[in-house]
Structures are given as C-alpha cells and as structure tokens.
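ingest -> validate -> predict -> emit
validate: passed (alphabet ok, no gaps, 357 aa)
predict: started
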Amino acid sequence: MTLLDADEPPALTDSTEPATTQGLARTNWVRFVGLLVTLAILVAVAFLSVAIGSKQIPLSTVWNTFVHYHGTDDQVIVLDLRLPRTLLGLLVGMALGIAGALIQALTRNPLADPGILGVNAGAGFFVTIGVAVFGLTSIWGYIWFAFFGAVVTTIAVYAIGSVGRGGATPVRLTLAGVALGALLGGVAGGITLLRPEVFDQMRFWGAGSLAGRPMSVVAAVSGFIVAGLVISLFVARPLNALGLGDDLAQALGANIIRTRILVVISVTLLCGAATAGAGPIGFVGLMVPHVARWFVGPDQRWILPYTLLGAPTLLLVSDIIGRIVMRPAELQVGIVTAFVGAPVLIYLIRRKKVSGL
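emit:
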C-alpha cells in the first residue's frame, strides 16, 4: 500500500466524482512536484525557526552550532532552546494537521478540526485535572490524561451531535464541539484561577505554546505521534471509499468498522500527544487539509502527505511571527493560529459549496 502511486490514478477521479472536485493539479506528476516544493518550504521554515528568536543570532553562528559546536552562549540558546522548540513544532503540526484531515474524511464534515470539535479542549481539560487534583508535573504522568480526554470528548461530541432527527450532520457536530469545548475550556480556566500554583504552571501551556519545552518533552510525545501517523497511512485508501458512502464503500470491499476504529485510535494518539506537548492549538487541522484538497482533489492518499508537510509549515510560521511581533516578548503560537484560523472558519461557513470530501 502506497500513498503516492504515480502509475495509478486517484481513487476518486473517475466518473463518480465531479470534475470540479479533482483539484488544481490534474496529474500525479504535478502533485508529486508540488509535494517536493512543499517539502523544500518546510525545510526552509524549520531553519528559520532555529535561526530567529527574541535574541538576534548570526546565521553563521546557527550553522556552526551543528557543524562546529564550542558551547558559546548563542550556541547553547540554539541547541537547548530553539532546536527542541522547532522539533516540537514539526511533530505537533504534523499531528494536528493529519488529525484534522482524518476527522474531516471520516465524518465528511468540511468544518471538522480537533480544536473546533472540542477534542483539544477535552484533552487539555483532563490534563488540567491531572495537574490540579493529582499533582502531576511530568509529561509522562499527564499525557495519559490527555489521551483519555481526547477519547471521551470525541465520543461525547458525536453522541450529542447525533441526538434528534437527521443524525450527526456536519453543522450539529460543529456546534456540539464548539459548545463542549467552550464548556471544558471555561471549567479548566476556572480551576487554574482557583489554584494559583496550577495557573503558574499552566498559563503558557493553556494558550498553546512551543516555548520552554525541553528535549525530554519532544522525546515523550514523538513515539505516540509517529504511531498515530503510521496508522493514518493504512486508512488513506479506505477513507476514499467511505467518501462515497457506507453502502458503496462496503460494495468496494472497505472494512468500515476497522477503518473507523483505526481513525479514532490515530486521532486520539495525535491529538492527545500534541495537546500534552504544546497545549490546545486550534485551526491548524482545519486550514491545511482544505488547501491540500483544493490543490490535489479528494484523494486521501495525496491529501495526507500534503497535510503532513503543510501543517508543520503553518505552525512554525505562526510561531516565528509570534516571536517577532512583540520582540523581545513573545506571542503564543495558539493565539497566532487563532487570528489566522478564525476568518478562515467564517469564510468556510459562509461558502455555499466547500471543497469536496
């Protein structure tokens, strides 16, 4: 099974799918070239993330940190502060982007996103409970609370959105997710205000931030995120079939129950680890899959790799902007993505026709 098969046409570009949903790139060769360009942009942005900060460090010093390390103050800043921050941004961006793409494909909801559906808020709420009630301070302690919160919130949002006639429509799921996320976020905020020691520990994490995370945090979340990404590779083709409806997917041989279980496991691992590492960050999983779908069409075998590269690019660019606009102070990356993502959400809601799923 491969995501990129240049000799095989995308699964949803035959007569069953309107030509208007095939995407801007009409051939696999164009899609592959675009993927390489996206990769090059990500590499460049990652280098800028290491090079740019509240303190100006010459590019030659940044380069020598990895080539000729001498332990100077500037090199320590690059290696111990900026490098872990960049690596965490790469992992968290990939996790949130792929989670958003999987949720959109599974629910056929173009407005789905781990933040909008309340998954990140649920994970964050249970992390707050773990820190405030059980006194957990290590990521190895509260990361399990993040996983549990992601699962519980996902189930709760789907259950609430399914109540009444019509079932779990995209609008109902979105409203249920926003309402539940606001509730859990408000309760978590109240807990941190009532417990000042918790607030001091959670204030930057609660806003969604990549700053101040040591390499131990990167190591703690990397295994779970990689596992979630690997699982997502195996559901790309079945999700293409599910996009045609459950009945036709079964006729095409797709195992619907297994696909949904794998998607839930993948989303739980991705959202739980990303939230535990960087806090609740919204809109990354909403915007990037839409851009990818606009360019490559509805084939998940192309949407997922484009999202895998595009989401961390967006997150790192937002983090760089947060470092620059208030220098020498910083603006948390979760605030920057909200400034960008909120208008995008409003635009998508007002559109009469969203990118085909």
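The radius of gyration is 20 Å.
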